[in-house]
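Continuing the series of single-chain predictions for the mutant panel. This is the parent chain; the variants come on the following pages.
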Amino acid sequence: MKSKILKLSCFAILLFTFFGCNDCSECEKENKDLKEKLEICISNQENSKSNDNSLAKSSLKKYQVKGGFSTKANTIDVCIPVTDRNLSVAEPPVDISSSKCNAILIRVDNNSEGCTSQQLPYHFINEKILISKINSLNTNRLKEDNKLIVIVIKCSDLEFPDFISSYKNSIVNLNGDYTSLNTILTNGCIKIKDITKPNEDGGDIIVGG
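Parent structure:
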């Protein structure tokens, strides 16, 4: 049953990616790369009899968002790989774009402190977002760039405002270079004064028009 659910989720990701693309050649390449990652993930899960690191062969990472957007349909479709079924999108996404990069920040939460498992993803959060509901997101620039950075973070509602400011500065520092996204992601937890402070993040670039 679990493998069937995973396969359906994987198929949904591929649909999101395909319909979000504006450039067919780019679409084909991304679909091929993603299909290979997901096939490895499914194969390893079906062949695994214990919760070990057998899924480590897959490069699908926690919070590595897949999806696409359509300014005509006024929607952003995202599929977020996670390692905790209790995680959900906690509030509407926030626009953290700079003058050179389109970007949004999505907060997920499970109402608990600490980090979620570092194992590879086994569950997906599928979310349809209305572009018009994201205050200040520039639709015209989305059409021009055909790209959108989507960053996912697990944190409390009290911490979120500080992270919004931090990521906005990070997006500005990218200076329009979408390919440098990984340089601003934390991927893990930060320890401050010996207290583990949840600062899990991840993300990817989705395409559309």
